[in-house]
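A reminder from the course coordinator: this example appears on the midterm review sheet, so study it carefully.

Given structure:
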């Protein structure tokens, strides 16, 4: 992907078929769907691809055990089907993950065991493996740091795990390979209308300051928690808001707290959510919370009581209780929950919602990562019906995502898939690029060069948060490696020393909120 080339295409095209606002999972998936059907497609993202919710998930590709508990069979069936397709289409990023549900009450084994057998049955031929009942000894063999006192046994089941931001970048690349134009740091500043009907958007290149008017037959609002902001542009502030943002945070711990390959799922916390502890990139991700928030922020910050909630809850189930000083990183994300009658965000809908306003603006919101492809298919079908586009069938069910390859997940660079030889080739061409960014991080300098040249990495934060996952794995190490990354990027992008200095300062301002406050 090349941003300058995309801008040239933007400037040389008089009208597009599909214009997408938002570069998270839903927007990028929609760009792939539209482009593979042959539509002239452009996407604008105000920050970086997957900057918001789509890079801050629990890293699970799953049907949703909690939604099965709630009786939302339709959502679970759809998600399990999509999970199977995603495992097939992006095998370098999505893998089979074993989960253990520990049982400390006599009734938990049969209760959760039967529920997970239903989960297996719903997955059908796309299942990842059968669930099984475990004895106490078998449970502790697979998860030796589980609290043994009172443990009766467990149930093991299978779900999917992935790297969310890396998948987003690969989906953007897939869209580009199918002739879509995808532009980051391009906020939409207004909507173009003729006779009260939308005919395009006004955008601004944040990096150059240049403004454009972009005409399009269909405009799709796929901005997640920022959905109501685009609706305000369409209807003014009189429209009824449809998003109730909910914050979920995650803590990252060293692998010693959960050695081995199995994740843990605690099916019921004090606030009615499930709690996960999941191995990821040689660390353990612990989450999540569910806190209603009033404003959608590009950089949400974990609240002290949310952090304490997670630390205290997981401490009930592990032999070694984690302390704040053990936390390597804290990241927060906002869920774009569709408003309903419920007063608690845990009960609001994760189903996706598609609306078409009187002006013709198409809005898609809700949903979750696992169902991004199906959501994209639905919204393009609506765009065809409402905008007079050619009726072409969806082509993404069996479409390989960029990078698709069989990989060894023990390889520290597995997530590059079929691109991995090119990064090695870069490193071979310059021995300096074989060096690690930081002793505590798995990444080498060649990955930053590759990200700048091929993945539209424009800032140090892009590099350390989403092209690599350094900020999420070890915030302190990421901060310490920022000057090295800025230097590599400045050389590649022909930027001066002041740019380097500014980039490090901007990154540090964001990254400090990922550090635990051990004095609090």
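Designed residues:
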């Amino acid at each position: 992907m090349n941003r300058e080339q995309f801008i040239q295409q933007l400037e040389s095209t008089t009208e597009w078929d599909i214009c997408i606002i938002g570069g998270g999972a839903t927007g990028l998936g929609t760009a792939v769907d539209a482009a593979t059907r042959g539509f002239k497609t452009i996407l604008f993202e105000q920050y970086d691809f997957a900057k918001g919710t789509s890079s801050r998930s629990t890293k699970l590709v799953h049907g949703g055990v909690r939604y099965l508990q709630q009786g939302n069979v339709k959502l679970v069936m759809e998600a399990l089907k999509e999970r199977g397709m995603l495992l097939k289409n992006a095998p370098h990023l999505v893998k089979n993950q074993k989960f253990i549900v520990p049982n400390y009450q006599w009734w938990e084994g049969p209760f959760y065991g039967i529920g997970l057998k239903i989960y297996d049955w719903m997955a059908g031929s796309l299942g990842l493996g059968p669930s099984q009942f475990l004895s106490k000894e078998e449970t502790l063999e697979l998860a030796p740091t589980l609290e043994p006192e009172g443990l009766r046994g467990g149930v093991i089941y299978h779900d999917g795990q992935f790297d969310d931001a890396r998948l987003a970048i690969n989906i953007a690349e897939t869209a580009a390979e199918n002739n879509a134009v995808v532009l980051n740091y391009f906020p939409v500043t207004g909507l173009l209308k003729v006779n009260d009907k939308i005919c395009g958007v006004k955008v601004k290149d944040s990096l150059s300051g240049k403004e454009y008017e972009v005409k399009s037959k269909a405009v799709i609002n796929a901005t997640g928690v920022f959905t109501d902001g685009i609706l305000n542009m369409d209807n003014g502030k009189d429209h009824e808001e449809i998003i109730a943002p909910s914050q979920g945070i995650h803590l990252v711990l060293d692998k010693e707290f959960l050695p081995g390959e199995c994740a843990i799922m605690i099916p019921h916390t004090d606030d009615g959510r499930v709690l996960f502890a999941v191995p990821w990139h040689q660390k353990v991700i612990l989450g999540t919370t569910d806190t209603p928030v009033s404003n959608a922020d590009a950089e949400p910050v974990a609240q002290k009581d949310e952090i304490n909630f997670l630390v205290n809850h997981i401490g009930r189930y592990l032999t070694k209780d984690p302390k704040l000083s053990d936390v390597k990183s804290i990241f927060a994300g906002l869920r774009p929950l569709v408003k309903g009658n419920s007063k608690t965000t845990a009960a609001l809908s994760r189903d996706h919602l598609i609306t078409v306003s009187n002006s013709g603006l198409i809005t898609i919101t809700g949903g979750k990562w696992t169902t991004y492809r199906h959501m994209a298919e639905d919204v393009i079908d609506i765009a065809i019906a409402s905008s007079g586009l050619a009726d072409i069938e969806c082509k993404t069910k069996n479409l390989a995502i960029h990078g698709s390859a069989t990989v060894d997940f023990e390889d520290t660079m597995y997530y590059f898939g079929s691109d991995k030889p090119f990064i090695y080739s870069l490193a071979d061409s310059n021995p300096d690029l074989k060096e690690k960014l930081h002793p505590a991080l798995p990444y080498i300098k060649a990955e930053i060069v590759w990200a700048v040249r091929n993945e539209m990495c424009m800032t140090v934060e892009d590099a350390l948060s989403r092209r690599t996952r350094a900020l999420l794995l070890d915030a302190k190490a990421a901060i310490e490696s920022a000057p090295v990354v800025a230097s590599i990027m400045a050389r590649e992008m022909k930027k001066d020393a002041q740019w380097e200095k500014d980039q490090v300062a901007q990154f540090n301002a964001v990254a400090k909120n990922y550090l635990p406050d051990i004095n609090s």
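The first strand starts at residue 16 and ends at 21. The mean pLDDT is 91.
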